[in-house]
Amino acid sequence: MTGRFEDPFDIESHYEVLDQISFDTGQGDLYTGRHRKTGEKVALKVQKERQFESTRHFIALGRDLTDEGECTSTLSEVPGIPRLIGQGVFRGGQCLVMEYVDGVPLYDVVSLFRPVRDTSTVASVIGQFCEVLDDVHRRGYVHRDVKPDNAMLEHSGRLRLLDLGLATPARRRTEYGCGSIGYAPPEQLRSSDDGVTPRADVFSLGCVLLEMTVMRLPYDGTRGGLTAENPVVLPRDRIDAIPKEFAEVALAMVELRPENRPASVREVYEALRSRVPPVDSPAPRKPLRPDPTEYYRTVPHRW
């Protein structure tokens, strides 16, 4: 059953709700589910159970989740974004039914192997982010929450970008700051009449690159580090530890002023291109599991 987004349905009449797999993923909690007739496995993003908030506030929180669903629906044609199947109601709250991604969170994979020193592995992770984000940006959106927790590596090595709860049209006025401290750029810390541009995601992706390779987030990973009078990107020993193949682009990606960053994720990809493994090349000596290089080693390159 593929319920139309415009036609909400009762979740439990169509799906068996299985295990809770994540708590408080932005706008709600994440469960696995199975369609009662077809057996299709899905991911269910469920509005958090009502606590002490007013009815009006609870309804407003549900509206935030349906707004995320509308954004996900718009971006469902992007290959790296899980497909939206439908919207429904679950025990009085809103619920999104999405494609289930069978894989391992990127954060879990990278945490076991940091610092990641193999340049083909680093380029394969960042390169796949660039491909997905390029599609998002070409459709006029900014993700605003790029980080390892919001990406999944399928067992084939393919990267999928999750959680569009903070995605917004580029340059649309923002009423408040948002994102994840440590990955969010300065322009996301507060409201802005000018909104944000794709260069906000470039900054966040640069944070991912640095975290993978030198095990440190720029500007101490704190709001205070970003807003300090004399901000320090990284201690000198950490800068020296950045693989030379990535040092220039990585530091440019996390410039505080958006205009000083690469203009697009395609520009970032071009800076990494020489380290992206070619088709039919051998696996790294010590690959991650799943191995993100497998995507480029087995699939014709997009660019």
TrEMBL record:
Amino-acid biosynthesis among the record's keywords? no
Q: Record's superkingdom? A: Bacteria
Check the record and name the Gene3D superfamilies matching this protein: Phosphorylase Kinase, domain 1, Transferase(Phosphotransferase) domain 1
Q: Which UniProt keywords apply?
A: ATP-binding, Kinase, Nucleotide-binding, Serine/threonine-protein kinase, Transferase
| E.C. code | 2.7.11.1
> Sorted alphabetically, which SMART domains does this protein's record hold?
S_TKc
Q: Identify which top EC class this enzyme belongs to.
A: transferase
Q: Give all residue intervals belonging to the Protein kinase domain.
A: 1-272
One Pfam family in the UniProt entry: Pkinase
List the InterPro entries hit by this protein, alphabetically. Answer: Kinase-like_dom_sf (IPR011009), NEK_Ser/Thr_kinase (IPR050660), Prot_kinase_dom (IPR000719)
Protease as a keyword of this entry, yes or no, is no
Q: Which GO terms describe its molecular function?
A: ATP binding; protein serine/threonine kinase activity
The protein's name is non-specific serine/threonine protein kinase
